[in-house]
Amino acid sequence: MTNHPAFPETGFVRLSLILAPNGPIPVSKSTWWTGIKDGRYPKPVKLGPRITAWRVEDIRALIERGTA
């Protein structure tokens, strides 16, 4: 799963590449945002006023831990 073809090795990814069906994590957006508040999922990085992304390294670590 960590070798998902759309995932770069480093950098940032948007939510559409993280959550299924395009991404490797099979949860809904509302579950994802609740998980961020609870500390289960990594916090996002604001790249601009309307751009939120996550560090690829954080998402890969989440997948490797198997807590997704």
Describe, in short, the structure shown.
Helix content is 29%, strand content 16%. It is α+β, with helices and mostly antiparallel strands and 68 residues long.
Describe the structure.
- The protein is an alpha+beta fold.
- The protein has one domain (12-65).
- 29% of the residues lie in helices and 16% in strands.
Sketch the topology as an H/E string, one letter per element: EHEEH
Low-confidence stretches: none
Helix/strand/pairing class, anyone? alpha+beta
Task: Give the spatial strand order of the biggest sheet.
Answer: 1-3-2
> What oligomeric state do these chains adopt?
single chain
- What would the average pLDDT be, to the nearest integer? 90
Helix content: 25-40%
Q: Distance N terminus to C terminus?
A: 11 Å
**Tally of contiguous helical segments:** 2
Would you spell out the secondary-structure blueprint of this structure?
Elements: E1 12-13, H1 29-38, E2 45-48, E3 51-55, H2 56-65
Antiparallel strand pairs: 1-3, 2-3
Task: Summarize this structure as a short list of keywords or feature phrases.
single chain; 68 residues; alpha+beta; 3-stranded antiparallel sheet; 2 helices; 3 strands; globular
